[in-house]
Amino acid sequence: RDISPALAHELIYGSIEYAAQFGFQPHRDFKHSKSLLDPPDLHPRSGKVKFGKDGKPFFVAGPHDNVAAIRRQLARSAGEGNYHFLMPLSPPADDQLLVDDTGDGDDIEEGKPLAPHRPRADKKWWQFWK
């Protein structure tokens, strides 16, 4: 879905300002893409975009995040228990998660072979851990 440049700027610069309240700065690579954007004050803000969840910061951990450091920063700046977070589980190796593929509903039954669970190829790994 297409959005207006004004809404894109409100999302980008609003998220930067929101994160700054809690001691976070944009990734160092943002300086490269920042030149593609208009100055922050060029587009008026609608005020309709809300950040966080239920009035609190909401951290969704990514594969390259330092989760412990980010949670410490949130505890210092927002206060312990005053933020939300979601940490996706690592996908299991094929040989670590075995399921009964016979379809009879019995996950483990003596004498039946178990097959490795294979997620559908059209899904991303984090979609399985919501």
Largest β sheet strand count, sense and barrel closure: 2 strands, parallel
Q: Taking all residues together, what is the mean pLDDT?
A: 79
Binned, the helix content reads 10-25%
Number of strands: 4
* Strand order in the sheet with the most strands: 1-2
Based on Cα principal axes, name the global outline.
Answer: globular
Instruction: Write down the oligomeric state.
Output: single chain
Structural class, judged by helices and strands?
alpha+beta
Radius of gyration: 21 Å
How many helices does DSSP assign?
3
Strand content: 5-15%
What is the number of independent domains?
3
Distance between the termini: 24 Å
Which stretches are low in confidence, meaning pLDDT under 50 for 5 or more residues running? 95-102, 107-130
What does this structure look like?
The chain has 130 residues and is an alpha+beta fold. It has three domains: 51 residues, no CATH class; 32 residues, no CATH class; 40 residues, no CATH class. Helices cover 25% and strands 8% of the residues. The chain contains three helices and four strands; from the N terminus they run H-H-E-H-E-E-E. The longest helix has 16 residues. The chain is globular, with a radius of gyration of 21 Å. The two termini are 24 Å apart. The C terminus is likely disordered.
